[in-house]
Amino acid sequence: MINFSIKNLKKLLFFIIFSFLFSQPIFAKTTITWWAEANADRDPVFVEKLQNVFNASQNEIELVMSFKEALNDVLRTAMVAGTGPDIVETPGPSYVKEYQEAGLLQSMERYSKQYGWQDLLLPWSYSAGVFDGEFFSAPKTYETMIMLYNKTLFEENGWSIPTNLTEYESLAKAIQSKGMHVFSYGSTGWQPTHEHIGGMYLNSYAGPDNVYKALIGEKKWSDPEFVGAVELLRKHMVDDGYWSGSLENYYALGWDDFHAQFANRGAAMMTIGTWTFQTTENVFKDISDDWDWAPFPNLTAEGGDPSYLLALGTTLSINGKSDNPDAAAKVMDFVFKNKAMVLDMANDFNFGEFVVPLKFTESDFGDNVNPKVKRYLLTFAEETGKGNYGYTTWTFWPSDPGVHIWKDMEVLWAGEITSQEFMEDHEKLWKKARKNNATLPVGKR
Amino acid sequence: MIILTKKAWIAWYFIIPAFLLHFMVVAVPSMLSLALSLTDWNGFGKINYIGFENFFELFDDRVFKKAVKHNIIWTFIFLTIPITVALACAYLLTGIKKGQLIYRLIFFFPYMLASIISCQIWKYMFHPLHGIGAWLSEKGYDFLVASPFTMKETSLYAVAWVDGWHFWGFLVVIYITGMYQVDNSLYEAADIEGATKWQKFRYITLPMIRPVFVFTLMIIIIWSVPTFDYIYILTQGGPAYSSEVLANHLYSQAFERFKVGYASAIGTLMFIYVIFIICIFGILQKLGWEI
Question: Which of A216, B144, B204, B240 is deepest in the core (most CB within 10 A)?
Answer without folding.
Answer: B240
